[in-house]
Every structure is written in C-alpha cells, then in structure tokens.
Amino acid sequence: MQYNTLGSTGLKVSAVSFGTAPLGDMFGSADETAALDAVHRAVDTGINFFDSSPYYGQGLAERRLGRAVAGIRDEVLIGTKAGRNGANDFDFSPNGIRTSLERSLELLGTDHVDVFQLHDIEFVSLDGVFGDAYAELVSLRDEGKCRYIGMTGYPMHTLARAVTETDLDVILSYAHFTLLNTELETVLAPVCRDNDTAVINAAAVALGLLTPAGLRIDLPAPQEILDAARAVSALCAARGVDVSFLANQFSIQRSGCATTVIGTTKAKNLDAAVAAVSAPIDEELLADVLAITDGVRSTSWISGLPENN
Length: 309
Fold this sequence. Notes:
This protein is α/β, with parallel strands linked by helices. It has ten helices and twelve strands.
C-alpha cells in the first residue's frame, strides 16, 4: 500500500480509504459478519483510513466499524460526519452537531475521531454552515473530540466557498475526479492549494456509472453523462478491461489527492481497488476513453439547493 500525507494535517493516509456507506446497508442489506470481515480485510491490505457518517444506516455503519476496529483503534484513522441524518433530514445547528458527534463516538467506541466533517452542506443555507456550524467544529476540535475538521458535498461552487470562507483542514469531494468529470482538478484543487486545505477524493466509479452493472441508485445525471458512461463501459468491455478498474486507476493515480475513498464490502472489489493504486494504466485505452468523455468532463448534475450549485 502507498501512503501519503493528508495536506498540513500530517496524517499518513493510505492511497485507498474505506468508505463505510455499504456497512450501513446504503446499497442493499449487508450481512453483519461480511461487513466486519470487509473492514478486517481492508486493514490487512494496508488501508488505514475509514470514512463514515451517521447517515449511513442511522448509525449502523458506525456501530459496525466500531466493532470491527475494537482493539486496533490506535492502528487506524477514523473520519465521521454530522449534519445529514437522513435523505431529507438535516441538522447543522451547533447542538445538533455536538450531539451527533457524541453519539458517533459512543458507536465507534472511541473518545475522538481523526477527521470530523459537516456532511453534504449544499442542502441547506450556507450562511449557517459557515457561521455557527463551523464555529462548533472549531470548538469540538479545540476540546479534542476530533483532530481535524472539514466539510463535504458535491457542487464545486459550494466546496470552493467552504474553503475560502472558513479555515478547514480537509474537504471531501466526490464524483469530481473520474473518467466522466475532472472538475476537482480544474476548479477545486487550485482553491484548496491556495488555502492549504487537503482534498479527500471519493466515488471514483461515479456512484456506479463507471461499473459493468451501471447505476444502482437514483441519480439526477443529465442524459449526456449517462450516454458517455455507457459508451465508456462498452469500450472497456470490448477491450477486455473492467471499466471499474480503469476508473479506480485514473482517480487514485491521477487526481493528486492523498487518498481516494472506495465503498464496498466485496473482497474482490476491495482487492481490485488496492491493486489499482500501482497497476500501470493502459494509456492507449485511457486516451480513447477521455476522447469519449471530452464533452462532459465539466458537466455536473444539480445537488441540494439550486443556489448552492
């Protein structure tokens, strides 16, 4: 496993991180034993950063993660979030954030998390997020309940504002450095460099768009993105390559981010993501794929409030 420094935090994180949404049954029911085994397998491969949230199964993912790392807490880094509690349930009030973290710590079986972020901030007014909510993050960090603070979301505009209007250690961006979209590199990364904010990359397979099976969730992606994804998958299949593997290679190796979050409980998918860290990219295939997606790589779908996009 390759390890990189997460910006100015000094944390040494594995190039692949484990996203725990599947532990919370977000993509179908996961057997308890299989869920715990997936975490143990991740540790065995060298993965040391685990990204979670109360939103993932109303605390189920955090409980399972806590059980899985009991006894090895000092060997891993844990990140969790607050603010999003359900599909349409958001609470970014200072008390809500504090209460959420305290429950997360109990479920995770730890007295602190290494990274604590506000989750999907684009769904609410940003005035409160960048005001009282941010101040509460700082207070919780000062109290030692978390070591580093950040925010997450989808729209580049919102994340850029978060970086420039607050002082964050990290930001988490998803589905914005993929074979279909590279706005993380062109829009967000320069702002983060200027403000000394580390970027955690996520969703290399674009939430399922870049998998042989295709989407398994409802996604408001415009037709041109859906068409490009199908064309890329078809090309990879014709060349005898798993589109997911190429997508992981590209996102992990070319994003410039210290770590890329991968969410799966399947051993073969986890092993493939780890292999993608160092496996040489088929440059000819990549060039052909990027030619297909050239017209959409600056196209995003709408997430959250329209004004935050």
